[in-house]
Amino acid sequence: MKEVVNCVCGHVNPHGTILCESCGRVLDETQKDSKMIDMRYEGSARRSQTYNKSIIDKIWNFFSSVKVGVSLIVILLIASSVGTIFPQEQYIPPTELPEVFYEKEYGFSGKLYYLLGFHNLYSSWWYLICIAMLGTSLLIASIDRVVPLYRSLKKQKVSRHDGFLKKQRIFGITKTDQQDIEFAELKKILESRRYKIKEENGNLLAEKGRFARWGPYVNHAGLIIVLIAGMLRFLPGMYVDEVLWLREGETKGIPGTDGRYALKNNQFKVEIYDKKNKEDQTFNAAIDKVGTIVKNYQADVTLYEKEGNTLPGEEAKFKKVKDHSIKVNNPLKHDHYALYQVDFKLDELSEMSFNLMNKNTKETFGMITISLDDPKTMYKLKDGYSVELLSYFPDFEFDENQEPVTKSPIPNNPAFIFNMKTPDKPEGEVSFVAIQQTLEPLGENTYKMAFAGVDTRNVTALTVRKDLTLWIFFLGGAIFMIGVIQGAYWNHRRIWIQRKDGEIWLAGHTNKNWHGLKRDISMTLEGTNIDEPEDQLEPKNLGELEK
Amino acid sequence: MDKKQRRLIMRTSILVLLGAALVFSLYANFTKEKVAAVQKGEMARDFVLTDMDGNTHKLSDYKGQGVFLNFWGTWCKPCEYEMPYMDKQYQKYKDQGVQILAVNVGESNYSVKKFVEKHYLTFPIMIDKNKQVQTAYKIDPLPVTFLIDKNGKIIDKLTGSLSEESIQKHMERIKP
Amino acid sequence: MVELSGNLLYASFILYLIGTFFFGGAIRDKKGALEKKQNKWAVIAIGLTILGFVAQLGYFITRWVASGHAPVSNLFEFTTFFGMMLVAAFILIYFIYKTPALGLFALPIALLIIAYASMFPREISPLIPALQSDWLHIHVTTAATGQAVLSISFVAAILYLVKSVDQTRRSKKTAWLEVIMFAMVATIGFVIITSTFSAIDYKANFKWVNKYDEEAVFEYHLPALIGPHEGELMTEGKMEPFVKMPAIIDANKANTVVWSLFSGLILYVLIRLLFRKRVAAIFKPLVKNVNLDLVDEISYRSILIGFPIFTLGALIFAMIWAQIAWTRFWGWDPKEVWALITWLFYAAFLHLRLSKGWQGEKSAWLAVVGFAIIMFNLIVVNLILAGLHSYA
């Protein structure tokens, strides 16, 4: 394999070069016959094409290929769409088991979806590998192209080989005997159109927007930063994602903060759009149609920070940091942590009250109020009357042996076993009381615990989030946007104007937006004696007949 | 060094770097749930809790002894099954330098007291009222037992209900 | 204010419709088809288009004032806004390239989109808490604008294909081109059928058994060709369905789809019988003066203009807002995934064009696929795939 290619102009080009880096002469034999030359990457030698010996080179060249890159994009695109056919596991109701849910909900196809692991597609090993391969391709393909492109754009000469000019898409020859005057005039106009002019041996190169050529590499760099940020998230301490359920009036440590912060829920409320509110009346029609539309979910909280170092479980001193109303779209932010309103439960029972009552006479002997978080064993009433709480089931159900048990420690369905002691029944009467249910397991009673009311509270669920990688994602995104705008909204335009005897040759090239280049050229030539060059791709120039 | 060799070295190092990044990401992705939890091999986080009789227990005070640290709730059936076995083994091992600490995950005094009375439990039982200890130990499903050796190192983490036999075996493991 | 807003939208619809005919006139005149000099027809046509756009902008602003938030919060509002931005993007491209032929295809597509939008509930609806953010305006409008500019590439691609595909013999290309034409005809069918039955206030209730074996009720607004699982007609004197669906399929939506395809098919067959030509072949003479190379460049250019806007609106702004409202900037919600898919597709397009030299016809077919993905986003993702973004 030849290491270098020598051009007649004297410049030494790396192997694989299509157009001489310096004068633009066509070096690649296969290109010599074509009507127009391939200007991609300036005809420079892409490094990947140069060496293909060791296994490292082969892997390198594989990832350097645009074909491979595009294939990876297409594979990712198709794989991603598969993941949207049915909801991902994280979006199925939290109470459902995935192995049951998909089949129940979507039949056989759902079962298959689950068995193939598509319910967790985006964190599957093969999806991650695809992303990693695309990232590799981004990096290697960019390295492979940006270096030679930079070199050839830097080294380009003003005077170009005749063949190079003739084979540009925009090309024209004007016969004139006043070359000097025309040149001075053109130079002035092009400069006023913000072209950078280089002169050499009386020839001109007008160039503008070269920096647009770096756009793709800048945006690829942005994407690589985004991928790095995604990877950093796996590092311990970079990312916290916890949930905190908090009842009204309750204060709890914030998970994920290692006991440093505590939060108190002062109040949680849900507001709905109401036709009676003046400002909501615009929406009457929608309210009539849909029914209830929620206006606001809001948790009024107070944030506390621990003072000094204490062990978990140890009594600690907390100082208030701030009050905040957490709403959707308005999280509480402090010290890299953010607390978001994500869920709630309205009217959870907190207290229940009962009257001790004689079933026959309906006479009552006092009321007891049971805190469902902290019930007491004995409730004393007036002389000779008391109620003993024998058992308490916050979330009552009957188990398989028909024994009362509790499903959870949360007072969703409280039940009690009372022993009612009265002067006429000093041993007491046992009564089982649940919501809308009373049993007398040891025989008919004289007394009962008559339901007298409840007290409720709302519970808010907050997501606790810390993400130290956010700024890196943002940086990557910003760099990507800069690169993509740079590449898309600016064009690299070049106009070569050279003198041959008695003629002026004019050739133009742009990396895109030929319409704009042609307009630029025609406005430049307006008022000069130089003929407008031809677009060699125009149908009439290609000799095609209009159908 | 010639140009070709330099290029080979550069390419190799970039590819190795990318490969390492891929391996790291895959590994981290599949262990992310485990990393979140407290693992065996770690040193046990110190804590202080007061038991039902009003005695304070600080984990670090048990240095030199084995600690059978159990997290439980009264509504949790598997927790309930293992409690009597734990109590029997406690009677056997408490004089051999093994302590049982049973941390309730923050229920009412009433419920815990009733539970203790029902099962005649004699080992120290404490209520983690503000859930600081369970947060520090990242407790999710109950019951969970941490076996802590005399140096304060977690030598095993056991989830699910334990039989009397296995409790005895574990007691042997942490016996100093 | 609400009424004024509705009238302005109606006016813009009519103006676009008239504008389309003037664009038709503009390209019949040989002079007008050349890019440099516009003929009178073209001047009137673009004038009407701008007037229509101003009217629609008026609709947008008055509705914003009336509701207190940017009207992009439900499917009707979003889709009309998309139609409006499509017209805006067309006007922009028109002033760069001065091609009336583009208008002949861009305006009808905008009309179809606006008509399709009007089939959804049009009441001004209040914002639920998740939508109460300035990012609603910023994210949705930028994303829609990006999609609209990208859609212009489809319009140009259609122009390209109608001209370049050989209609003298049957081929895969003519068949696919007919599929595109049929999709548009079916949209017209959907609009006609839906508005006809809504004008006569058709309602039929069905009792049915859902997949949890619970009884439920469906309200049909179109006669039931397809009935729900174990469906039982409860409204007297309405049509009984021909077939019944299994419980896991939403029979009501399936019925609408079948009606659209069915009415589209009738319309399509009628057109074919009337002209005795493929639909694309009917349009072919209209585009005979079109410069393929220029149209190809318009298609490419609009992707170049639209791609950064789309990235900014549908990915970056979307992520910023998702971080604020949903606690995480990315959560693999179906709409998020489809925004990514759209983005990946156009990224692939740009790479194929830049590095593989896929220009002309290949590039035009790709632009068609891109638009199909955008429409999939608008219709299927919003109405069928469950997710946080769902308008269904």
From TrEMBL, chain A:
Keyword Transmembrane: yes
Protein name, per record: Cytochrome C biogenesis protein
GO biological-process terms attached to the record: cytochrome complex assembly
Xref: PANTHER family: CYTOCHROME C BIOGENESIS PROTEIN CCS1, CHLOROPLASTIC
One Pfam family from the record: ResB
Source organism phylogeny: Bacteria, Bacillati, Bacillota, Bacilli, Bacillales
Domain ResB-like: 66-521
UniProt keywords, alphabetically: Cytochrome c-type biogenesis, Membrane, Transmembrane, Transmembrane helix
Record keyword Acetylation present: no
Subcellular location: Membrane
Record's bilayer topology term: Multi-pass membrane protein
From TrEMBL, chain B:
One of the GO biological process terms: cytochrome complex assembly
Coiled-coil segments: none
Pfam families: AhpC-TSA
Keywords on record: Cytochrome c-type biogenesis, Disulfide bond, Redox-active center, Signal-anchor, Transmembrane
Gene3D superfamilies in alphabetical order: Glutaredoxin (3.40.30.10)
Protein localization: Cell envelope
Domain Thioredoxin stretches: 38-176
Gene Ontology MF annotations: antioxidant activity; oxidoreductase activity
Superkingdom assignment: Bacteria
GO cellular component term, pick one: cell envelope
Official protein name in the record: Thiol-disulfide oxidoreductase
Protein source organism: Peribacillus loiseleuriae
Lineage summary: Bacteria, Bacillati, Bacillota, Bacilli, Bacillales
From TrEMBL, chain C:
One example of a Gene Ontology biological process annotation: cytochrome complex assembly
Membrane-spanning segments: 6-27, 39-61, 81-97, 102-120, 140-162, 174-200, 257-275, 303-325, 337-354, 366-388
InterPro entries: Cyt_c_assembly, Cyt_c_biogenesis_CcsA, Cyt_c_biogenesis_CcsA/CcmC
Domain of life: Bacteria
Alphabetical UniProt keywords: Cytochrome c-type biogenesis, Membrane, Transmembrane, Transmembrane helix
Protein localization: Membrane
Residues of the Cytochrome c assembly protein domain: 73-196, 262-389
UniProt GO molecular function: heme binding
NCBIfam families according to UniProt: cytochr_II_ccsB (TIGR03144)
Name of protein: Cytochrome C biogenesis protein
Organism in which the protein naturally occurs: Peribacillus loiseleuriae
Organism placement in taxonomy: Bacteria, Bacillati, Bacillota, Bacilli, Bacillales
